[in-house]
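dumping this here before i forget
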Amino acid sequence: MDRLSTLLSHFGVNAGTFHSGTFCGISAYGGEQTCGHVHLLQAGELLLKPGNEPQITLNQPTLIFFPRPFAHRLFADEAMGTQLVCASLTFDGGAGNALAAALPDYLVLKLADIPELGSTLEWLFKEAFDGHCGREAVMDRLFELLVILLLRHIISSRDQRPGMMAGLADPRLSRALSLMHEQPAKAWSVAELAAVANLSRAGFAEQFRRVVGQTPLDYLLSWRVSLAQKRLREGRPIALIAEEVGYESPSALARAFRRKTGLSPRDWKASAS
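structure:
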């Protein structure tokens, strides 16, 4: 059972390279934007100001990852010798989808600390600075691969806040989560999920709530609604969506949707347009 591929089959990642080379000046990115960003400091020095938080000085090759829209500024002057490669980033289903929402606001990681990304980074930097034809198309795909490898790195880390990614990092809970992700239309019971995790019903419920931050059935509701939101964005009929995510009728989906978002599917779609 591939816990990450199942997620990405629903909420794939798309990247668009918009800068590669020397960086000098100030670039500001507003929280009102609809995409996240990845910035790669290949050489030199860079100042990062994330939101209202203190400024960070970066002077080693570094990956800066904003999975969702988040206000931040980058600054460098000519003396810093800054070499930077940047891409915009979107996940299918919008910035509020279940995968993007499960990630931290931002990550700042020294490239030396994520060696599993080494060969992809080497290829990406080569494309960025060698000027071959088709370079931007290749770089876009490499940025997407980079994000997938970064997600793999995050899932393998045990030092996480409660949420989906922490659950996927737990060897027992990940089995239950992956089944919910793969088969959202099934009427899962806590007892069935506990058996998959090889835990007692009470032990599973307690561990799930502690690690994921929700009860198993609340999580299933959140996952179904997130899938429904993605399908609404795609223009699929509400009756078909209801069947795909485990509700016997559009009205049953609408009740679950309102419970989670405070809006009907129709009103949510209008507000998200």
